[in-house]
């Protein structure tokens, strides 16, 4: 479990006027959960992700990953192995000239036996649907394929938690679909805990829990249905809801007998045809 207790953070503690990026955050993420973090740029989502991974350290409060405190120098590498992080631009994470070497990079640096590395690389590429591309050059892949290779590189280090900071922001719709389908598979079939930072509400709608941040505060938390049914509140924060949820909301306002908790097209069809 990831446990965040009374967490506050700012980038410059020597400057009295420095902005507090996170303010007294309390959050628990259970093993096997798929959690989506939403909020404007500057709301604190990416900073929170880096604090979970130990790339940043709390100013106040604690971040515990399976009981390991990110403030502990002795435990920080174990934390980073346990909670792997995938960034927005895959090109910034890819370093090797062949896909399989790219995926092997992390395990090699961990000092893992070559025979075990081979197993992990093959398994990770299989998990993300990229096994047929293991001899290819990463720079020749599509955006979605590159991001899946980046995810495979994290998987090969056997993390329990995968933190993804807007992994689909630079991708076209088909690339986004590839990555999200991969994350769902890893969560549902492999039992990986997924923490997804995204601007796309349709992506957040497939999670188990949505956490909404605003100006360093956690302002909403619940299932996608619980959060997105609060259309006025979400819009008041300057965010959107999934398109079908908004359509259902507008139809309901116009007096049509329809649930305001529709999250996807299939549910909308059922509502219209009932």
Q: What's the SSE blueprint?
A:
Elements (H helix, E strand, L loop, with lengths): L1 E8 L12 E8 L4 E5 L6 H9 L6 E6 L2 E2 L6 H7 E4 L12 H11 L4 H14 L15 H13 L5 E5 L7 H16 L4 E5 L3 H4 L4 E6 L2 E6 L1 H5 L2 H6 L6 H11 L11 H9 L1
Parallel strand pairs: 3-8, 3-9, 6-7, 7-8
Antiparallel strand pairs: 1-2, 1-4, 4-5, 9-10
Helix pairs in contact: 3-4, 3-5, 4-5, 5-6
Assign a percent range to the helix content.
25-40%
Annotated CATH architecture: 3-Layer(aba) Sandwich
CATH topology: Rossmann fold
Low-confidence stretches: none
Q: Taking strands numbered 1, 2, ... along the chain, how are they ordered across the largest sheet?
A: 6-7-8-3-9-10
Concise overview:
This protein is α/β, with parallel strands linked by helices and 274 residues long.
Can you give a write-up of this model?
The chain has 274 residues and is an alpha/beta fold. The protein has helices at residues 45-53, 76-82, 99-109, 114-127, 143-155, 173-188, 201-204, 224-228, 231-236, 243-253, 265-273; strands spanning 2-9, 22-29, 34-38, 60-65, 68-69, 83-86, 161-165, 193-197, 209-214, 217-222. It has one domain (2-222): 3-Layer(aba) Sandwich (Rossmann fold). It contains eleven helices and ten strands. The strands form two sheets. It has a six-stranded mixed beta sheet with strand order 6-7-8-3-9-10, with helices on both faces. A four-stranded antiparallel beta sheet has the order 2-1-4-5, covered by helices on one side. The radius of gyration is 20 Å and the shape is globular. The termini are far apart. The model has no long low-confidence stretch (mean pLDDT 90).
